[in-house]
Structures are given as C-alpha cells and as structure tokens.
Amino acid sequence: xxxxxxxxxxxxxxxxxxxxxxxxxxxxKSWTSGRNACVKGVNNAIIDGTRxxxxxxxxxxxxxxxxxxxxxxxxxxxxxxxxxxxSFTHGLEEPCNDFGWTFSEISGGVFPPYAAxxxxxxx
Length: 123
Hints:
By secondary structure, this protein is of the alpha+beta class. It has a domain at 30-108: Hepatocyte Growth Factor, CATH 3.50.4. It is 17% helix and 20% strand. The chain is built from two helices and six strands, in the order H-E-E-E-H-E-E-E. The chain has helices at residues 2-13, 53-61; strands at 15-17, 23-25, 45-48, 70-74, 79-83, 101-105. Strand 4 and strand 5 form a beta hairpin. The longest helix is centred in the N-terminal third of the chain and has 12 residues, at 2-13.
C-alpha cells in the first residue's frame, strides 16, 4: 500500500492538466548551476517548506499561473522564491547581498512562448 501511494504521488508530481482537463506529463528542464546571486524585487511566488534546491526548481517547472524562468532558494529557511525574471530580462545582484540565497534559472535563455506571437499594432 505504501509503495502504491508513493507511485501515485510521483505521477501526480510530474503531471499537469491541459485546458481540456486531459492529463499531460511535463518535461523536466535544464537548469544553470546554483550560484550566489539574486534578482531583487521580482518575486512571483514564495513557497515555504521547500527542502531542496531541486524541489524548488520543480516548483518553477510546474507553475502554470505565469511563465517561471528562475528560482532563488534559501536552504536554512527552506524558502523557495520562483520568478518570471531571468538574467536575460533583469539584472542579477552577484553576489547577493542577502546571505544564504542560491539563484538558478532555466538554461538557454527561455522566454515565454507567447512573446513571439504578440500582434504588431504599428505595422
């Protein structure tokens, strides 16, 4: 029974649903290595109780309310901050003046999929 529960939790953790309610599996993304840096003032969501840097990255990957690009993780307080900001869109404070924060972002300069599809109003 315990193994079945673990399997269900694993599948649910790697699964999301599309707009029609059909279950789809999300691909894990490539991340930059963690470094002592931070983006000030762009915190879209804060998740307390996050026990690892990898779990914080996963919170970002499964976020559906905004296009998450980066995370800042504080290991001592188990705080995960996820953000649409990246080193490409906002300046990094490196090293971060707030002690204990680790910054990581989805590698490859990923931008929201809708960015290229914005209409041209002055064309």
